[in-house]
Amino acid sequence: MPPLTDLLFYVFAGLTLVCGFLCVANPFSRNPVTSAMFLVLTIVSMAGLFILLHAFFLAAVQILVYAGAVMVLFLFVIMLLDLREEERRRIRTFTLATGALIVMVIVGLLVRVLSGAAPVRQTGPEVEGHTKILGRILLEQYVLPFEVLSLLLLVAMVGVILLSKKDIK
């Protein structure tokens, strides 16, 4: 029988993947609030993964900042835009082809980077419970992934606004 941590890892990883998929392609409802709630469940599942890594500070920040503050902001935007259950849009061929091309480019880049990466032996000093060391490592050693993540969040916000835009007839 596998150890409890292995079992919990598979449970939290599975919940993260399923809730993330349901956030994007929600078959239950066309209401954007339902997708936002699945995003909250995805964030909480990721916090569980951080707890398994003994990154308690990151788990707390994940829940307080993302599941709390950012989701409240998303819900305010959804409410202010007065989004209701919408009918499915027609899929334009050009948009679908462009999206598929972009996804293939990103997957190709990811495969290329991961295939040339060396296995990680030690990620750095022990940072459990020390936020000053964590901040120093994050903003000195990992500044590029930090900025890429912030750019990804910006693109996600712009995407939400573009997806919620009403078609003018």
Protein described:
- The protein is mainly alpha-helical.
- The chain is 73% helix and 0% strand.
- It folds into 2 domains: 85 residues, NADH-ubiquinone/plastoquinone oxidoreductase chain 6, subunit NuoJ (Four Helix Bundle (Hemerythrin (Met), subunit A), Up-down Bundle), CATH 1.20.120.1200; 44 residues.
- The protein starts with a helix and ends in a 5-residue tail after the last helix.
- The model has no long low-confidence stretch (mean pLDDT 80).
Name its key features.
Four Helix Bundle (Hemerythrin (Met), subunit A); 169 residues; mainly alpha; 2 domains
Provide a concise account of the structure shown.
The protein has 169 residues and is mainly α. 73% of the residues lie in helices and 0% in strands. It folds into 2 domains: 1-85, NADH-ubiquinone/plastoquinone oxidoreductase chain 6, subunit NuoJ (Four Helix Bundle (Hemerythrin (Met), subunit A)); 126-169.
Question: Topology of this structure?
Answer:
Layout: H1 4-24, H2 32-52, H3 56-80, H4 93-115, H5 131-141, H6 143-164
CATH topology of the largest domain, which one?
Four Helix Bundle (Hemerythrin (Met), subunit A)
- Strand content of the residues, in percent? under 5%
Give the CATH class of the largest domain. Answer: Mainly Alpha
Oligomer: single chain
**What overall geometry do the principal axes of the alpha carbons give?**
globular
Q: Structural class of the secondary elements?
A: mainly alpha
What is the count of structural domains?
2
SSE string, helices as H and strands as E: HHHHHH
Average pLDDT figure? 80
The CATH superfamily name of the largest domain is: NADH-ubiquinone/plastoquinone oxidoreductase chain 6, subunit NuoJ
N-to-C CA distance: 61 Å
- Summed up, the helix count is 6
| Helical fraction | over 70%
Q: Largest sheet at a glance?
A: none
Rg (C-alpha, Å): 19 Å
State the low-pLDDT regions, or none.
none
CATH architecture of the largest domain: Up-down Bundle
Task: Report the strand count.
Answer: 0
